[in-house]
Amino acid sequence: MPDRPVPPPAEDPEEKREGTLVTNSPDPAKADTAVADDRELSEAGSQLSTTPLEAPEEGQSVPGSFGGLRKPGLGGALAWTWRECAGWARWFWRQLTSMRVALILLFLLSFGAIPGSLIPQTGIDELKVEEFREAHETLSPIYDKLGLFNVYSSVWFSAIYILLFVSLIGCIVPRTWQFVGQLRGRPPRAPRRLDRLPAYATWRTEADPEEVRQAALGLLKKRRFRADRAGDAVSAEKGFLREAGNLIFHVSLIIILVAFGIGQLYKYEGGKLIVQGDGFSNTLTQFDDFKPGSLFDTDDLPPFSFTLDKFSGTYEQSGPQRGTPRTFEANVTYTESPDAAPKKRTIEVNRPLEVDGSKVYLISHGYAPVVTVRDGRGEVAFSGPVPLLPRDANLTSTGAIKVLDGYRGKDGKKTQLGFQAFFVPTFAGEGKGDMFSQFPALDFPVLALNAYHGSLGVDSGLPQNVYQLDTTKMTGFKDENGELLKQRMLPGETMELPDGMGSVTFEKKIEEWASFQVSHQPGSGLALTGAVAAIAGLAGSLFIQRRRVWVRAVRGDDGVTVVEMAGLGRSESAKLPEELAELAGDLHDRAPTAAEPDAVPSEGAEK
To answer: Which domain of life is it from (predicted)?
Structure first.
């Protein structure tokens, strides 16, 4: 005698044929019963998901004509046109709000963001964009037409973004109402043929059917099933968090899209290169470059300021990673407003300074050799640090020294000077025509200059790169051999200009500079919330199973109660039979299997 319920043994088809006339003619009553059973099974498994059904218009094919019959005359033509347009509009809306199209748009949005990571963007670094244009003269016009230098503000990216936004809303709203209806409704009634469900168990018990149903109801509610009694059975369902997680995931995508839109509209970001000892005030004129959102008002810039007190960097000294940066620190003194007290802070990579909703990031650094230029009369025309831009990891740097005003030749005439500068912090040799650095620290600094005089072109009113020298209207100074005057200098050395035109001194002091990015992203917190909620919702939709359980208890012809239990899930899973077995075991402990009746002795047998 088994202690636990087991599935009923399969019926022998030969036993069914015994004493029965077998024909090929279908039995109408059995056919109707089979249809009814199929319908009940379909109802039992209905609404396990809130995925909307996509069905074409009745009597029409999709795509195709939605206008139907066209009556003669102008009125018939107008009515037919209206039905046709309305039908196509409904069809397009159903396609747009389908999950398939939403996934396609999400893929296109991710795929479209790839060029924004691989191709320089005007909103991030215009200098790199200009360098790319100069290096790729054939591709640049094509990229301009496709908007690849400004991907996130391009028409095609905005179109994908908006369509995905509309698709998600159109998909979520009906599913949400359907889910709310399921929460307010009751579990479906038990089918007549529970043995046709994928997970099934049955046994006979001496307990009263009402006691079994009451025990099953309490057991299922204890297991956090939503249970209800209907007729001779108990219906229960569980796993609504799966659909809730699915909806949360899609709502989170909308939140992320909204946060992205808010960030693009109300953001601002700008860059500033600051030499050690100099300062910055968060006003529009102080930025080297500034990119606001389309709805951002520059009057809303927070009134903070800071001074770069000292920049320090350390590098790996030996081994295969020699020269690899270890620490970059910018020690600053900042004030949150003009009347606020100054505060000290150290800005590191990925550890920005946060002031009034804005963040100040340390993004790069380099060297600024201190140079003094004297004119032919020995008077100082220029003196100060000159920031140079790094070209490689060892901080081999290039730039330009421009003397705009204050310089006069030995004849007293005003002119402008320009010097192409090439700097290495640790001199390693000439290489192939150019000197290069072998270590990023200031171990053996060397400065090389090429000298020009004439017009720098700054009076034309056109924007000019301060780190590049335009020599189209300038004449190079000549050395004794008639070649372009150039010289390499160690700290403290001086290059004399020919014909008593003055001199250039490479001072022994070399300053360091740091480049900062000041940015304000108002939607970042909202985007983070959406991302966390999306992960949580996705986990719930993947790992929680929606399932239903039915328990039927009826009294048999012999007076013994027959208990049936069955389960149905949205998808096939080994957990559903295991869970049903645990439920059946617990219920069996309360309504154990009845003893089998004693067999009646056959005639003539010993008693």
So the answer is: Bacteria
Q: Check residue 9 and report its DSSP letter.
A: P
Beta bridge partners of 236: 227, 549
| Helix and strand totals (H; E) in the chain | 12, 22
Taking all residues of the chain, what is their mean pLDDT, rounded to a whole number? 83
Reading the block at residue 99, the tokens are 């999950």
103: Cα within 13 Å, side-chain hemisphere:
3
pLDDT score of 169? 87
Coil, helix or strand for 350?
coil
What does the alpha-carbon distance between residue 325 and residue 395 come to, in Å, rounded to a whole number?
Answer: 11
Query: How far from chain centre, in Å, is Cα 535?
Result: 11
Mean pLDDT for 272-285 is 94
Q: Is residue 401 packed enough to be buried (19+ CB in 10 Å), middle (13-18) or exposed (0-12)? A: buried
| pLDDT band at 366; cut points 50, 70, 90 | very high
Give first-to-last CA distance, the chain, whole Å.
24
- Distance of alpha carbon 281 from alpha carbon 363, whole angstroms: 18
What are the C-alpha distances in Å from 184 to residues 177, 180, 297?
Answer: 11, 6, 48
Segment 266-272 shows an average pLDDT of: 90
Q: Which two tokens stand for residue 146?
A: 């496709």
For residue 295 the two structure tokens come to 């709805």
**In contact, 452 and 471? CB cutoff 8 Å:** yes
Q: Whole-angstrom Cα distance, residue 454 to residue 419?
A: 11
The CA–CA distances, whole Å, from 418 to 131, 405, 449, 607 equal: 22, 12, 10, 128
189: Cα within 13 Å, side-chain hemisphere:
9
Q: Tens digit of pLDDT for each residue in 442-459?
A: 999 999 999 999 888 877
- Residue 85's φ and ψ, nearest 5 degrees, are -65, -45
Are residues 238 and 547 in contact, defined by beta-carbon separation less than 8 angstroms? Answer: yes
Tell me if 428 sits within 8 A of 463, measured CB to CB.
Answer: no
pLDDT tens digit string along 161-183? Answer: 889 888 888 888 888 888 888 78
Cα 51 from Cα 247, distance rounded (Å)? 10
Q: CA 592, CA 229: separation in Å to the nearest integer? A: 21
By DSSP bridging, strand 289-292 and strand 268-275 are antiparallel
Measured CA angle at 454 (ends 453, 455), to 5 deg = 130
pLDDT, position 473: 87
Instruction: Give the tokens for residue 178.
Output: 């359907």
Residue, of 1 and 223, whose pLDDT is higher: 223
Using alpha carbons, select from 154, 86, 151 the residue that is nearest to residue 118: 151
φ and ψ at residue 243, rounded to 5 degrees: -70, -35
Phi, psi (deg, nearest 5) at residue 149:
-85, -5
Report long-range pairs for 462-469 (Cβ below 8 Å, ≥24 apart).
465/127, 465/130, 466/400, 466/402, 467/387, 467/388, 467/389, 467/398, 467/399, 467/400, 468/400, 469/400, 469/402, 469/418, 469/419, 469/420
Half-sphere exposure of 557 (CA within 13 A, CB side): 0
DSSP state of 471: -
Surface-to-core class of residue 231, CB atoms within 10 Å of its CB (0-12 exposed, 13-18 middle, 19+ buried): exposed
- Res 170: pLDDT: 85
